[in-house]
Amino acid sequence: MSDISIRTEGHAGRITLTRPKALNALSYGMCMAVEQALDNWHDDPVVALIIIDAEGDKAFCAGGDIVELYGTGMDGDYHYGRKFWRDEYRMNAKLAEYPKPIVSLMHGFTMGGGVGLGGHVSHRVVCDSSQISMPECEIGFVPDVGGSYLLAQASGRLGEYLGLTAARMGPGDAIHAGFADYYIPQDQWPELIDWLAVSGDVGAVASAAQPVPDSPLAAQQPQIDALFGGDGLQDLLNALRGDDSDFAAKTLKTLLRNAPLSMAVALKMIHRLRGPSLTIRKALEMEYRVSHRIMENGDFLEGIRAAIIDKDRNPRWKHAPDVVPDDAVAQMLTPLGTDTLGFEED
Fold first, then answer.
1. CB pairs under 8 A, 24+ apart, for 269-277?
2. Which residues are bridge partners to 27 per DSSP?
3. In Å, what is the CA distance from 109 to each residue of 130, 156, 170, 290, 313?
4. What is the pLDDT of residues 148-173, one digit of tens each?
5. Could you list the active site residues?
6. Does the global pTM surpass 0.90?
């Protein structure tokens, strides 16, 4: 397909996103093509490692292609979205659990679905242009594609902060927060790719890595930990209102703009997942509880309308930030029974 290039070069399986005008947003067909490539290369003795990159200067992948999801949802067809997310999450798990090394080269915007594609593999590379984020709460969704898995593992309360505010991480921040592993200037990537393909030796990534840039997020972490340590969304809002710093004021303004139900659910997800029993599958299963219901019972369609369709930037959320009902949060996270996400192909 024209949106993605899949081929073998030397000892490398190559996956390149090729729709730069759409910021390499992932369609359903692209997700399934990635999964098929992973299956094909799983037992191929020639393929020693896999490289995932993208064309264009602006983005590795700016998320999922949500316009089609909006159209089907507005028509009352929730099945398409559920199938999209179910199959995408299965692909995310396969990337995370793959037995061969996978190198992702995440330049520019890497958001949402892009994190699901590049953020769970064994060797995650960033450069100076990298801007990584989980912006779902801005559009009435929750961090998904395994994003909750990464957020729950982030040190201190960075997961809560990143998940609710959609703050963007530069290269130093992404490595500090656990969303990336290596910093390599982008002008060195072509040579690295060539060597990986010729040698099949993923050790070349660590050899090419340079010192990690400074992380503004790390410097801000003591304040973030203090402000985002509460149990619920109301606790966070109260803490921010009680702090007279510019950072607290700016952060509060961001939270008051985002979808209240999404933030309350995301916060509960991160708290539930955090701990030694966390796995990528556990996170994806919990995320799917929400995505299965989000069109019908959440703010997702309204969020897309305001941000993408009408572009009025004036979403009418179901709840006010200070009055998100506990039962609405619980409803989103209730187990799905027979509709529970599975990880075997249908």
1. 269/142, 269/143, 269/148, 269/152, 269/333, 270/148, 270/151, 270/152, 270/159, 270/160, 270/163, 271/231, 272/333, 273/148, 273/149, 273/152, 274/152, 274/153, 274/159
2. none
3. 6, 25, 10, 25, 21
4. 999 999 999 999 999 999 999 999 99
5. 64, 113, 136, 144
6. yes
